[in-house]
Amino acid sequence: MDKHFNKIYSDLLSSVEEKLKEVISESKPDSIALPFEYLINNGGKRLRPVLTMLSCGACGKDPAQALNPAVALEILHNFTLVHDDLMDSSPLRRGKPTVHEKFSSSVAILLGDAMIGYAFKLLPEDKNVTSTFVDSLVIVCQGQALDMDYNNRKDIRVEDYLEMIEQKTANLIKASVIIGARVANAQQKTLELLEEFSLNLGLAFQIQDDYLDLAGESSEIGKEIGQDILEGKKTLMIIKCRELAKENSDKKLIEKFYKNNGLGKSEIQSVRDLMQRLGVFEYTKQIIDQYFNLAKATLDQLAKNKHKDMLNWILEKTQARKF
Predict the structure, then answer these.
(1) How far apart, in whole angstroms, are the C-alpha atoms of residue 190 and residue 178?
(2) CA-closest candidate to residue 207, choices 285, 154, 311
(3) CB atoms within 10 A of CB 39
(4) CATH number, domain at 315?
(5) Is 80 exceeded by the pLDDT of residue 152?
(6) Residue 129, CA distances (Å) to 43, 66, 77, 142, 270 in order
(7) The pTM is what?
(8) What percent of the chain has pLDDT above 90?
(9) Which pLDDT belongs to residue 92?
């Protein structure tokens, strides 16, 4: 069965890559086209466009009908990465210089703006699809604003963190699934189930990303661990550490993180050890599995077909990922 699903996934992925190449080939001038090509060729899981096409298929239509809006969502996702990297002054993305580092800040701003235009050109003339896309664009910007606000706050609660990642990450995964269903003219009950499925999947995905950044191994995740600690990201695990820390030395370490908006490389292992002692890794893994299980339980309520089964397969593969 894995072989069969891998073939379907590979075919969908190929169609997404081909469409992305087509959009890049039509972009101009070179000052936009070259950084656009550089960004897209730098990889990515392409999870969102594949979810869009599979959602369309799960609702009884040909996944190919959702190819253009699927690629529009992948372009929107990459737009957020370009501007986020610029705002965060991040030097690397997927192991390579970010767009603003390789080209310039001006190019990064202009490319991001152009990418929104390219994405809109791919959307069908369907007010439900366009409305979902626009809402997602606004919400993801709101999520980034919250993320920036949190950099200067020391009173972030778990609830605040969940609100931020729902808007910044889960929202775009939700939009990807809902737009696929919209293309297929899905019934309201199906839309509601897919919305619940995708929201829980998105929350699980982001918390899992944060978890792997510290609990994973460099050889598996393909990058140095602890980037969120270096950048001062107030993740679920850091917030929980602050709640649970009782020893003076533990409190001192966490307060240093909050005061300096991050810690140095030499202190990453100390944070990992602290999280291990306080049971934060175990707690976080339980939260991740809880959201994945909620997503699966909702998905199971959809009518069975091969594309619905593919969505379940992707969920299971994502839950088991190590990078």
Answers:
(1) 10
(2) 285
(3) 28
(4) 1.10.600.10
(5) yes
(6) 26, 11, 16, 20, 47
(7) 0.94
(8) 87
(9) 83
The CA-atom distances, in angstroms, between 307 and each of 5, 87, 304 are 9, 38, 8
Q: Tell me the per-residue pLDDT of 2-34, one tens digit each, with 9 for 90 and over.
A: 788 889 999 999 999 999 999 999 999 999 999
pLDDT at 218: 55
Distance of alpha carbon 291 from alpha carbon 1, whole angstroms: 25
Residue 187 lies in domain: 2-319
Nearest CA among 16, 33, 111 for reference residue 73:
16
Do 292 and 204 meet the contact criterion of CB atoms below 8 Å apart? yes
Report residue 264 as tokens. 């140095």
As a whole number of angstroms, the distance between CA 109 and CA 150 comes to 23
Summarised one tens digit per residue, pLDDT across range 192-225 is: 999 999 999 999 999 999 999 999 775 554 457 8
The count of residues in the chain is: 323
What does pLDDT average to over the chain? 94
- Asked if residue 83 has pLDDT above 80, the reply is yes
Percent helix, percent strand, percent coil in the chain, to nearest 5: 80, 0, 20
CA–CA separation, 308 vs 141, rounded Å?
30
H-type helices in 245-279, by residue range?
A: 248-260, 268-278
Average pLDDT over residues 301-313: 94
Domain count, the chain: 1
- CB-CB neighbours of 217 under 10 Å: 10
Residue with tokens 């002054």: 89
How many C-beta atoms lie closer than 10 Å to residue 197's C-beta? Answer: 28
Q: What is the residue type of 38?
A: Y
For the stretch 66-80, pLDDT in tens is: 999 999 999 999 999
Both structure tokens of 99: 């767009």
Whose CA is closest to 24, among 10, 9, 42, 12? 42
State residue 221's pLDDT score.
46
Say how far apart CA 311 and CA 323 lie, in whole Å.
19
